[in-house]
Amino acid sequence: MRPTGRMHVGHLLGALNNFIALTDGNDCFYEIADLHALTTKFEQSREIAADVREMVTDWLAAGLDPEACTIYLQSHVPEISEMAVLLSMIVPVSWLERVPTYKDQINALGAEIATHGFLGYPVLQTVDIAIFKADGVPVGQDQLPHLEICREIVRRFNYLYGPVLIEPDAILSQTPLVPGTDGRKMSKSYGNTLMLADTDAATTARVKDMFTDPEKIRKNDPGHPEICPVFYLQRIVNGGNADSIAHRCRAGELGCVEDKADMARHLNAFLAPLRERRRALEARPEAVDEIIAQGTKKARAIARETLAEVKAAMGLR
Ligand code: SF4
């Protein structure tokens, strides 16, 4: 995951809970992809270190157990960068240019992000996976083209130099599209987030401003909970009452002001254990740094071995 600082409810429901579930029965490696962050944030590179700590604090507060997985910082495993240089020699530029997100992102973010590093993103991403000989990568449907190019690069390496690397399979995860306060996908770039680390009061105020069914203006108007972002979150944080809420909304017996206050209360209760763990971690930032350092040390030992195998297969000294 690219370090983007503090995380929001969409991250928790869409990715973090899946990270945690996967640690059960799998040997998971979770990368803090700070080099990838540079592809679009090279002008704000000094912000990345603080973003790393904030993000990992939220991972841990959400319940990701560093004893049950390996959490490591990409830039502190220099073997990743070295192997990326080696793999970049065998990857045709045309493969990189045809990755769908390449042109989409340039169109969205502007031509100034069209750097060598940005074009080579899939090569670095391949190394992130291949250097740990990962056989599975949790991805959403939209990320399948990235995994496909990774598999192609691995196949090309193995064809040229012998079977050293493993072609990873997709572990397709059902990433729910969590709506933000305005009903669009929850995302920092839309400014529609509910942050995990916010206070109860700040969360309640954000929920109060949330979009609802535009046809439900007064309490007794019949509503459509299925299109309402407040109801989406009610189902998660107050699931036992969801049927009754939907019924009362449709029947014009429940008003949005009342429902929002109820949802905010349940959301704050849902996030309370996470927020408590976060406060404890914030009080000991050196403990978070130590967890990252320990995971990075473990990751580096494995990366070193794979890099040595790669160089030997290529006949480099
Ligand atoms: S009553 Fe609740 S579910 Fe119905 S539209 Fe209003 S906020 Fe949404």
Structure description:
There is one protein chain. The chain has 14 helices and four strands. It is elongated and about 75 Å long. It has a two-stranded parallel sheet. It has a two-stranded parallel sheet with strand order 3-4. Helix 11 packs across helix 13. The mean pLDDT is about 95. By secondary structure, the chain is mainly α. The protein binds iron/sulfur cluster. Iron/sulfur cluster binds near residues 228, 230 and 254.
Describe the structure concisely.
With 317 residues, the chain is mainly alpha-helical. It contains 14 helices and four strands. The chain has a two-stranded parallel sheet with strand order 1-2.
Computed CA radius of gyration, to the nearest angstrom: 22 Å
Mean pLDDT: 95
Low-confidence spans? none
Strand segment tally: 4
From the helix content, strand content and strand pairing, which structural class follows? mainly alpha
Feature tags:
two-stranded parallel ribbon, 56% helix, 4 strands, 14 helices, mainly alpha, 317 residues
SSE order and pairing:
Layout: H1 9-22, E1 28-32, H2 34-41, H3 48-62, E2 69-73, H4 78-88, H5 93-97, H6 100-109, H7 116-119, H8 121-130, E3 136-139, H9 144-161, E4 169-172, H10 200-208, H11 229-237, H12 242-250, H13 256-282, H14 285-314
Parallel strand pairs: 1-2, 3-4
Bound molecules: iron/sulfur cluster (SF4).
